[in-house]
Each structure stands twice: as C-alpha cells, then as structure tokens.
C-alpha cells in the first residue's frame, strides 16, 4: 500500500514532492474514479505540483502569528432575537383565496397516486 501523502511524503532528488503513478491509481480507486493509463500519467505531475503548493504554505506560516479566519474582527450584526406575538390563524388566512380547516387550500398538482 502506498505511503500516506502529506508532509512525510518522500521528496524527489530535486527537493520536489513527487507522487507516483501507483499512488494516483490508489487515490483514484479510493475515490472510486476510473482512470485510464494516459490519465494516470497526466495527473501524477499535476498532483505533485499541488502537494508542493500546499507544502509551501506551511513554510510561510510563522509560529508567532495567531491563526485567524478574517483580517478584521467581526461582530454579529443581527438584531436581538425577541419573541413577539404572531398572527392568529384567522389573520394569517384572511387573504387566502380558499381555506380548509384553518389551512390554505390549494389545487392538487400530483395525480391520485400521491
């Protein structure tokens, strides 16, 4: 079974993270994706570039910078959730064209089998 990809993945002789054709085939089988030989050969170098890009992001992050989700602090802009009296059934149904047992009555759109 191939090695788990990530920071412990082997680096090639040029310092690049390389993913092999067999690893791509294994990932494709896990994802239930059927790839032919040409697609495996085409995707291996592309996935290597993606892994290198992700690895370069981990090199940029400094330990003295706290993780943030936004550059500026955000606050909740919603109003307070206050319970207020709602409409009575009669008020809610007052504009309805047809009412049946305190519910809106609408024409059936499905056949009799529903």
Q: Can you describe this structure?
A:
This protein has 114 residues and is mainly alpha-helical. The protein has a domain of 60 residues: Histone, subunit A (Orthogonal Bundle), CATH 1.10.20.60. Helix content is 33%, strand content 4%. It contains 3 helices and 2 strands; from the N terminus they run H-H-H-E-E. It has a two-stranded antiparallel ribbon with strand order 1-2. The two termini are 51 Å apart.
Label this structure with key terms:
114 residues, mainly alpha, two-stranded antiparallel ribbon, 4% strand, Histone, subunit A, disordered N terminus
Task: Give the structure's gist in a few sentences.
33% of the residues lie in helices and 4% in strands.
State the CATH superfamily name of the domain at 1-60: Glu-tRNAGln amidotransferase C subunit, N-terminal domain
Given the helix and strand composition, which structural class is it? mainly alpha
Overall helicity: 25-40%
Number of strands: 2
Specify Rg, calculated over alpha carbons. 29 Å
Instruction: Write the element-wise H/E pattern from the N-terminal end onward.
Output: HHHEE
Low-confidence stretches: 1-9
Strand order of the largest sheet: 1-2
Number of helices: 3
Largest sheet: 2 strands, antiparallel
Based on the coordinates given, report the CATH architecture of the domain at 1-60: Orthogonal Bundle
Shape: flat
Mean pLDDT: 81
CATH class of the domain at 1-60: Mainly Alpha
CATH topology of the domain at 1-60: Histone, subunit A
The amount of beta strand, in percent, is: under 5%
First-residue to last-residue Cα separation: 51 Å
